Amino acid sequence: MSEAGVDQNAIIARITEATSSLSDEEATQRYQQILAQLPPDQAEELNALALSQVASGNRRSLARQFKQANDDPSSPFDGYTFNDDDDDDVVASPTSLGRMTARAQQQDPA
Questions:
Q1: Calpha distance 4→17 (Å, rounded)
Q2: CA-to-CA distance for 91 and 4, rounded, in angstroms?
Q3: With the CA atoms of 70, 73, 77 and 80 taken in that order, what torsion angle do they form, in degrees rounded to the nearest 10?
Q4: Is 108 within 8 Å of 69 (Cβ atoms)?
Q5: Fewer CB within 10 Å: N-end or C-end of the chain?
Q6: What is the pTM of this model?
Q7: How far apart are CA 53 and CA 87, in angstroms?
Q8: What is 37-103 written as a DSSP string?
């Protein structure tokens, strides 16, 4: 259980069950609708929970994409707060990616 007493495995099971009949597009749309209604800290937590189910190689790839977006002057994203010498596992952790994902969603909700 998390610090708040929430059983994350139970949440994952409920989300999986609820979305099993949805297409990927419908599930993504519903997830975005839910996130839009949450306070930023809860959106970060939900993103981290979802990203904990993603393979570490895919999380590292996502972290690189966030870094590229942050470094691109034409991109509105400015939520990459790591240095080049920071540990890849820390940068690509579900918590870090959850924070960056929530920040990206706030900056470009479309």
A1: 23
A2: 24
A3: 20
A4: no
A5: C
A6: 0.76
A7: 20
A8: HS-HHHHHHHHHHHHTTS-HHHHHHHHHHHHHHHH-TT---------TTS-HHHHTSHHHHHHHHHH
Burial of 92 (0-12, 13-18, 19+ CB in 10 A): buried
The answer to whether residues 92 and 59 touch, using CB atoms and an 8 Å cutoff, is yes
CB 43, CB 105: distance < 8 Å = yes
Residue 4: phi and psi, rounded to 5, are: -80, 0
Cβ proximity of 102 and 40 under 8 Å? yes
Q: Which amino acid is at 75?
A: S
Per-residue tokens: 90: 């820390």
Mean pLDDT of the chain: 85
> Would the pLDDT of 72 be above 90?
yes
